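Q: For a teaching session next week I want to show students how multiple molecules come together into a single three-dimensional assembly. I've collected the sequence lines for a complex. Could you give me the predicted structure tokens for the whole thing so I can convert them for display?
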Amino acid sequence: MLDEKVAGRLPVLGESMPSLEVKENAVTVGRDELPALLRALKEDPELAFNYLTNLTATDLGDRITVVYHLVSFIYGYQLTVGCDIPRDDPRIPSVMEIYRGADWQERETYDLLGVIFEGRDLARILLHDGFEGYPLRKDFTWAGGRD
Amino acid sequence: MTSIYQVGAFWLISLAIIFAAIMVVASRQLVHMVLWLAVCFIAVASMYFLLDADYLALVQIMVYAGAVSIMMIFGVMLTQRPDLKECLLFNNQLKLATLVVIVVLALTGGLTYGARWFVSGATVPADTIAHIGTLLLSKYVIPFEVAAVLLLVALIGAIVLAKEVKPGARSRD
Amino acid sequence: MGDRIFIEFGNYLSGLLALAGAPLLLNQVILMIVKIVGALLFILLNLMFIIWLERRLAGWFQARVGPNRVGPKGLLQALADVGKLISKEIIIPGAVDKVIFLLAPVLIFVPSLVLFAVVPFGRGMIPVDLNLGIFFFFAIGSLSIVVFFMGGWASANKYSLIGSMRAVAQMVSYEIPMVLSVLGVVMITGSLKMSSVIASQTQVWNIFTQPVAFLIYFAASVAEVNRTPFDVVEGESEIVAGPMTEYGGMAFAMWYMAEYTNVILVSAFAVTLFLGGWLAPFGWTFLPSWVWFVLKLYLLIFLHMWVRWTYPRIRVDQLMSFGWKVLVPLSLANVFVTGFGMYVFRGIGW
Amino acid sequence: MFGKGLATGLEITLKELFTPKVTIQYPEERAPLPARFHGRFTLDKEACIACGLCQNACPNRVINCVRTKVDKKNVLTGYHMDIQYCLFCGLCVEACPKGALRFSQDFEMACYHRENVPLVLLAEGDRPACDVSAAGGKEVKAGD
Amino acid sequence: MPALAISPTNFVLLASVLFAIGLFGALTRKNAIAVLMCIELMLNAVNINLIAFSRFVTPQLFTGQIFAIFVITVAAAEVGVGLAIIINIYRHRLSVNLDDFDWLKW
Amino acid sequence: MYHAWLVPLLPALSFAVISLLTKQWKWLSATISIGAMVSGFIIAAFIAVGVLQHPGLINHPLVYSLRWLSMPGFKVDAGILLDPLSAMMLFMVTLVASLIQIYSLGYMRGEKGFSVFFAYMSLFGASMLLLVAASNLLELFVAWEGVGVCSYMLIGFYNHKISAREAAKKAFVTTRIGDTGLLLGLLSLQLIFGTLNIADLAQKIPQFQNIPLLITVAVLFFLGPVGKSGQFPLHVWLPDAMEGPTPVSALIHAATMVVAGVYLVGRMLFMFASVPPVMELVAWVGGFTAIFAASIAITQREIKRILAYSTISQIGYMMLGLGVGSLSAGFFHLWTHAFFKALMFLGAGSVLIGLHHKADVWEMGGLIKKMPITAVTFVVGGLAISGIPPFAGFWSKGDILDATLASGHTVLFVIGSFTAFLTAFYIWRMIFLCFFGKENPENHPQESPLVMTIPLMILALFSTVAGLIGTPWWDVWGRYIHFGTYVPPVANWPLMIGDTLLGALGIYAAYLFYCKDREKTKALAARQWFGGRLYDVLYHKYYLDELYMWFNHSMVDGVARLMYLFDIYVVDGIVNGVGAFTVAAGEGLRVFQTGRLQNYALVFFLGVLAVGVLLAFTGPHATLFLGGVR
Amino acid sequence: MITGTDLRDRLEHDIKTDRYVLNMGPQHPATHGVFRVVLTLDGEVIVNAEAVCGYLHRGIEKLAEARTYTQVIPYTDRMDYLAAMLNNLGYVQTLEKMMGVEVPERAEYIRVICAELTRIASHLISVGTYSIEIGGITGFFYCLRDREKILDLIEMISGSRMTVSYMRVGGVSEDLPAEFLPQVKKLMKELPAAFDEYDGLITGNEIFQARTKFVGVLNPETAINYSASGPMLRASGVNWDLRKARPYSVYDRFDFEVPLGRNGDCFDRFRMRILEMRQSVRIIEQALEGLPEGPFMGKAPKVIKPPVGEMYHEIEGARGILGYYLVSDGSPKPYRMHVRRPSFINLGLLSELCRGWKLADVVAILGSVDIVLGEVDC
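A: Of course. Below is the structure for the complete assembly, covering every listed component.
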């Protein structure tokens, strides 16, 4: 349920972004234009989405959706930005430059889903460095122990 | 000093001093050196006790064992590098130095052998500190003050030397 | 009547020996051994009691009960602890400097035990009344610094090393205000002899003439024995246990007991220097002098514990600046004020 | 300012020195347990209809109830809980339609041997064997 | 047992042995701090002599003891400054090996 | 009497307390400082009363002292010396200093470093009081330097101003030149007489026979007062010292620093008196300085500078008085001068405050209407300094002139008299320009608060009556303070009338030029009528500062240049030759320079051992080695 | 006032010694569990601090994919085990939002009471352990003593002290027991006095203040940029409390304040918690006042099958913004569950906060961030 103001403002911001789609309660964008969109959302004085509250991804079988949940502390708006990336080429630009809070969340997403955030150092954060596979992908199977 | 206890104590302490001193020179680990040095200082302090210089003995313990060793420890810890253990202990003038040491020993030994001392039979007064205090503040007051100034200068000097000069520090106008 | 009980016992023993025909020297040696054993017994008994007291008081301060299972009211808790610790293995990690590692917990006791030689336990009950008693205290006391360093360095553990370097820095720094604070007492007494220090307090205790010195001494002594709020050496939330990190079993127990021995020691000196030693307050001589000494001792030990279980830990750099920028100038000022006051009072004719 | 906070702290600890302590001397004294306490499970064997809802409700697959079909009706012949995996969430108790599975007030479940850990609320053979074997029924494992 | 009695000779010999050991170390040890320690040994040797003579020759005058006090003072100052210099050099050169200190200016 | 040591101690303590403890609390600091000074004054007053009980003290002063340093052949006592001279000085210094400090409460209000100022004032007072009370020349010297340091700090008090810093430096360096002489003199005295106790010296010096040596010592000694009291040619720092806050100037000029020199000469008069040529020197330096400074003062424009030159001139008078051998006259003038000069400085300060630090007298005028108290008190001061009876200055100046004439220094008498005329002229020039005439519409003066004016009034009272204790008919002063035997004064009517007339003449001349026809004078000045070049010379203080600068630049530089040439051609030639040889030699010897410390040490020890072995076998104690047998 | 930047400058110029690496953890008294900080030290000054977590990782997000929606509730307990009620609340609210389930009034009030009680209990642990970390052990016991009283109450409601599993979709699992109300009212009377005691013993202590004031300063810009939340964010002066900013449940009916810090230092972060506890007491008192009668469970289907879609919902947890992201494919099991754990994200700031401070400050800073390893590692 997008706020009217946000819904109205989004097309203006996204003029130069052909991949931007404004849906009922979310926005999706292509991975190449993702940083530009987030930067525009953050720096736009009328929206000022200054806070990245959540960053995660879902393995949808054929593709992986990376989701960014943004909040504007000034106006109280919320916005969900989604970005589909192919499963066999799970690269997406890092947004750490825009939101430093993305740092550990990107590492976590990489760790558990194998999404490769480009433009930053990625290291496993929850699992140990020698762990093989990405456990939150649907094709991951856990061998050993109670599940 | 003819009491058997004193004689025994002298030899015991002498052995301790010399053994500790040899260990200081011969230890490979710098920290071991410092610890042996402390042992040596304490042994020397007990020698002072034997010589009825109780105040000096305590000063020795406090200043040498308590402070100088600690400073040495700090020095060692501040300059320690892992590769120190591998390098040679002694430099290349070992032989010449041995010669010098032998000559020193021979010279002092020879001189002492021929010496006759004027040993006073008097005893050291009981309250050494009162005498020393009085002397320090009357007869030796100027050296005393100079020593104080020396310590102050050394203190400031050490601070200045050990404190890194800021590369971009603004000089005061 | 009980005042001279220990002295009478000594005399009795000496007389007995003389009767048995022991030569004077042997007589003295035996008496000296008896004195040493007596002092050791005193220390050990008090150690046991203090360890219990500390845990019990900690419990009470913290709305808990504390140890109350071993023995009556848990009084034998220390024994149980020691029993447990003795039965545990002393683990020697691979990288340690073995000799020094094992030597340190033994040596840590030496300075403290030596210092008990000059503690006046009661009227005429000072083992050795040195001319330089107070100076002796500080000189020998400074040796324990080296031992702390030995333990920490030999452990080959970074926490231990940090802890021992902190110990060295802290104890060196706090020795200075401690000495300077005692200087005021020495000036008033005019002697470094323990017995004269006590004798000079028959009229008024030094804590009343030297209150600032007492506070400085107390703060510095808390730092010297590494207890909260100055326990950065152990700082369990930062550096685990400092020099003691790698020690286990009885070796750890030695460190632990050394801490309490030192608490007894610094409190005993505080009693001697500031609280009139074994002198009875208000002329209440119905209790023997040594009882008064022990009572005052425990008052101070209680103070140590009270402070420990109330305050958080100060940071190491704050500790150093507190020592150098507050305590040292304050104690220097105290020396000057004392000197001036003495001059004035002498001028008045006191 | 300096020293006031320190003095207040001392005052508070001194006050606490004399206030009553909150410690409960455990084996001798025990704190009262509320009625809803999640302790050891009890099973009312008679009330249980062996529906298996508890087994399905369990998030951690702790419950293993052994049912035997007798006259088209499930009869409970064994009830095991791998209690070391139990979350004590109470979903099973909540799921029980007959109120047969209950919590008790017993929380002292520590034991010395690992084999004693699993909670056997109904061991095979506890029920009169005739009930089961006479019917000639076969054991059915839940979840099969 | 007068032959066994301790006379100044014993102390002078003890001191000279200590001095010789210190001298040997000071001349041969490579580590600058080690050299500093050896110098302390030498100073201690001197102090033993001073106090021994004070005890035996002029027990009432304390001149030797007072001299020893000054020696101790100077030694303390020397150690402080010496270590500061060594630390400073170490900081620039990352070495405390005296053989490395053969340049004449920084 | 026995507690005179408290007088210097109290301000010193107040300094310590303020700078260590109470710096944060301004008014507490000020209260402590003033309290210390006022209690010092009360004690000093008791001392003065006590001293008055013993008329013979001037020749046999009371000394209370403790052993300060004790070394073989060198013993120094520290203590206090009480005689009417020092008692008078203690009284005067504490009184004036107290008033000035109270005045400072108003003057320094709102200034940065208020507490520090009072701390310095206290220390300044303490140093001066110690100087005055010192029983020993070394002690006196310590205080002397203390005064110097304090004056340095106080002159440079506004240390954000470059001129203040420069002035402070100048004051310090210039007086240092004199102090060097004083120190040398002191050391010579110690060498010659083996003591520095004033009382001992007073016994020993008059009997000393080696007059040339004593002359040298006395001249060296006199250098100190020349520097400190701003006598020609070391007076240059004094006018610049006006950069400090006005109370400081008042303190320096009236009560403390500059009179220290006079006091020292007076204290050591027994030495100077034993060498008449030096007495001549003192008298002439004093006389010359008096007229020299007075002539400069005529042309100066800044109110405080005029007063500064006036001080130099008046100090010259005192020196003149001492130089002609009259301790009584010299010090009487010091006494009266302290009051009226302090009064005038404080008045000037009040004016400055009222005009927001506008110092040029030509830009003032008519202030009497707006600042009546300041103006009236200032006029009292002006009358006093001009020597109009019955104000204080009349009596003291008269005494000096009387003494000069009596001792047969006619030329000096003429100089002195003319100076008296000049004094009246320039002071009244200032007064007329400041307080009378037309008001300057740009100024919006306001009377100063009571805390400033009350000290002014008290000082005005003293300026009026302080001279009455030394009239020829009722000579309390002379009976107590005199050198040698006491000769009761005789009223010299012609001189008194002449003095008065000279003063009145000066005032009238000033009235003519600067009150009646001020505009005309301005015009005249513009046309350089007033002596043209003479005016310039005077206005530029005889170009002395420039002379000194020139000396520094040209002479020193010139010599340096000569040296440089010598260095380049002669020295370098030799050096290069030697160098070439050295290089060659070094090439050969460099193998021995390993740069290794221990290597050097080894060689060094080998050398020592060689000497040791040599001595062991051949030296005087060769028999010692192995018993000398083997 | 000394900031980390100053210290960083200073450390460039002070006595230069060799840097060395110190492993703080995984077994260390001050890391609140198995957690490691790799410190690069220059003397005692931190040059770099790298947090290493994951020692307690149990894969709850993965586990959830194999459980029904209801079965996930006990797992949420075990993330932030100090504030299990809040975890439950966030989870069930997300589901309710997804499915459009109405929650009865009484249930909402019970939820608020439980949530705030849990918040107090959680903050008490935080305050107490912080006291221990600064070195004062006694404060910890006082906090635990009072926390026990709260846990008793929670046990009374849910049967468990910590892992409560109390909330259900549509309400709560059981109604409040009869003896609960008088006891909670009594406790609410007692608590402010206890808070005063902590203030006297800990907050007001000068040593404590010296240790924490102006240490680990976090300015508001950095805090927002690093996605800090909860007391940590508010200590920096950013007014963002979801209970006020975007009220959920019935929080809009209560009168309470959002305490804000001034300096963003450790002291503020610590004090925030005590102030929040006082506010929680206010909320509970109001909720008890207005507690309506009625059912404690709404009309929720027996088998929970949310419609296909995704939902992200946040509540204000004890440590910050607690968000649940659920993706449903229409089956009774969640297709994907992700939890935005406040501890995890706040911990990302550690390295930034520690640099330039002393070894002892690491403990102070880590304690002021207040992490629960169960939540960080999830």
